[in-house]
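I'd like us to work through together how a protein chain folds, taking it slowly. To get us started, please write out a protein record for me. Label the sequence line and the structure token line clearly, so we can match residues to local backbone shapes. Once you have written the record down, we can walk along the chain together.
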Amino acid sequence: MQLPSLIEIPNGEKVIPTFSDSEMKDRLARLRDYMAKENIEAVVLTSYHNINYFSDFVYCKFGRDYGLVVTQDRFTTVTANIDGGQPFRRNHLGGNIVYTDWQKDNFFKAVKQLCAGNRRVGVEFDHMTLQNQQKLLAVLGDVNLNP
């Protein structure tokens, strides 16, 4: 039996956000405006700072990767199963995909699913290891990574 790579955990009630919905929507609108201006179809954010700034979720790495994928029509945190439902409870504006540790590199499977069909992808090169950059390029195929 193959255990799942990706799951959803709508566990618990949403918490009171740190910032208002209008503030968070404004932040996201500014990012999407920049993306449109630069012709970037998807952004994969991986730093504590940007994931928190745009989703109000602060992760503890525990040796795992975390991300936030933003397109013009979707906004999804990618989080490790160790966090259970916390990312779902913190993220008021978008979705959350949880990846499991049952297979290797499930984080990249989630990012691939969320970035499917996009050829210009923005990333935080100053927060991405060379190994993760290579893994991202391997799963996304023919893409241009942009800072």
